[in-house]
Specification:
alpha/beta, Oxidized Rhodanese, domain 1, 2 domains, five-stranded parallel sheet, four-stranded parallel sheet, 11 strands, 37% helix, 13% strand
Length: 289
């Protein structure tokens, strides 16, 4: 079997397996079914507090990613110490044994970051629901402005370090043909162009390719593109045997691509560099243009 046919076969097999049992992305209809199946389902709205206050899914708890970050960090996007994050989650009514569904205002950026954080901290069963109002209406997802009363729980951190990358791993990946480094920032940020939309970049990590978050979702709906569309977008051979190292400015858009590659493509060896370009640049590491 030639390499092209082998890759196609592997990709089809992976997609089949993903759709069969490894799907963490759920539709509005699947969400309604899950609510019926699991009465104690924990629903997390990762939107900013003002959007949550206007309307949210009935029973949803508001956990915007920013409350899990340091307030005046040296490096943008730095998370609080893990014990502090665990305490916040417990006080919000979450435990790592809960079945959790996370959604946001529709961009998928914030939901996928909070999803990734929960997975990284050891939550056992987390799913992402894409908020798309037509789908919500058709599935009769109930919205409200009422804030639910929650009972505090204990969230125990059991780190899953293999889904995160630290600086040492990033440095060891440069020039490694078995690791594909993907920058999910805008092309201007990737190329170190500074303008009103890109004021924070000296370029990109050496060897990285650019797959902007904005290309990963469809304009207007923010629904993820198809695997075929992603293959064309990547412009390189995608092999499940390789490791994929993803980053953006502060870990948000990298987490979106992480969710896509693990739940849509079914790839297993995927890491989000949570420290991201903000940390890389702060530490004075080499950027190229």
């Amino acid at each position: 079997m030639n390499p092209t046919k082998l890759f196609s076969f592997l990709l089809i097999t992976i997609l089949f397996l993903t759709n069969t049992f490894a799907q963490d992305l759920i539709t509005a209809k699947e969400f309604i079914a899950l609510q019926k199946e699991k009465p104690n389902l924990v629903i997390v709205d990762a939107s900013k507090d003002k959007l949550y206050a206007a309307a949210h899914i009935e029973g949803a708890i508001n956990i915007p990613y920013a409350i899990l970050n340091e307030k005046e960090p040296k490096i943008d996007g730095t998370m609080l110490p893990l014990e502090n994050v665990a305490k916040i989650l417990g006080n919000k009514g979450l435990s790592n044994d809960d079945t959790i569904v996370v959604y946001d205002e529709g961009t998928q950026k914030y939901a996928t970051l909070v999803y990734w954080i929960f997975k990284y901290l050891g939550a056992k069963d987390v799913k992402v629901l894409h908020k798309e109002m037509n789908a919500f209406r058709d599935a009769r997802v109930k919205l409200t402005s009422e804030v639910p009363t929650v009972k505090a729980k204990t969230f125990t951190v059991n780190l899953v370090p293999e889904i995160n990358a630290d600086v040492a791993f990033v440095e060891s990946s440069i020039g490694n043909s078995n690791v594909i480094i993907i920058d999910t920032r805008t092309p201007d940020e990737f190329n170190g162009v500074r303008n009103e939309k890109s004021t924070y970049s000296n370029g990109h990590i050496k060897g990285a390719i650019n797959i902007p978050y904005e290309s990963l979702v469809k304009t207007g709906t923010n629904v993820f593109i198809s695997p075929d569309e992603f293959k064309k977008l990547a412009g390189i051979e995608l092999s499940p045997e390789k490791t994929y190292l993803l980053y953006c400015k502060t870990g948000i858009k990298g987490a979106t691509l992480y969710t896509y590659m693990t739940s849509v493509l079914g790839f297993k060896n995927v890491k989000n560099y949570k420290g991201a370009y903000a940390e890389w640049d702060y530490l004075g590491k080499l950027s190229v243009k």
